[in-house]
Amino acid sequence: MHHFDVESLPAGQWRNGGGTTREIASRPSGTDVFGWRASVADITRGGPFSAFPGVDRTLTLLTGDGVRLTCPGVFDRVLARAGEPFGFSGDLDLVAELPGGPCRVLNLMARRGSWTARVERVTDPVVPRPGHSGVFYVLRGTWQDESASPALRPGQGGWWDGDDAAPGGALVPLSPDAAALWADVAPVE
C-alpha cells in the first residue's frame, strides 16, 4: 500500500482559478490519459467544473459547509454531509456553488468502459480485493493496515494498484469514532 498525507501532496491550481487539486494517484502513471484518478480538491470559489468526457466521477465532501452542483435539466444536488459520495457523468457541464464558503472534496474518476469505481463511507474493517485498485481515506479516528506502518489519521490514507502483489491486508479501525472512505476501483472485464 502506498501511504499518503493530503497536506504533504503538492497542490496544483485549477485553470479557472476556483481551487487547487492534490493528486493522490493517477493510473497508469506517466501518461496524459488516466484510467482512474483520485485527488483531493480545495474549492475556493463557485464556477464551472471542468468536463471529463468518457469519465465517471464520484465527489465526496470532506470538510466545509458543502457544495451545490447543478446541471440544468439533469440534477441540482447539494453535498452537505461529509462522507456521502455522489456519482455523476464527467460528460456533463456542471456549475458549483459554495453556499457556506470554501470546502474540500475527494474526487475519484474512472475511465468509462475500462474501469468502474464505487466509493462508500465505512466504519468496519475492509479488505482490498485481489486484482482491484483502490483508495482509502481517513475521515476521523485512527485506522491501521496490517503492515507495520504507523496508524492512519484524518487526512491520511493509502492507495494500491490491482497489479500490486499485496495491498497490505485488512484496514481496521483503532478508535470507536473511526470512519473512512473506501474506493474500490475494478477493471471492466
TrEMBL record:
SUPFAM superfamilies: RmlC-like cupins. CDD domains: cupin_HutD_N (cd20293). Gene3D superfamilies: Jelly Rolls. Residues 1-29 are annotated as: Disordered. InterPro entries: RmlC-like_jellyroll, RmlC_Cupin_sf, Uncharacterised_HutD/Ves. It comes from the Bacteria. It comes from Streptomyces crystallinus. PANTHER family: PROTEIN VES (PTHR37943). This is HutD family protein.
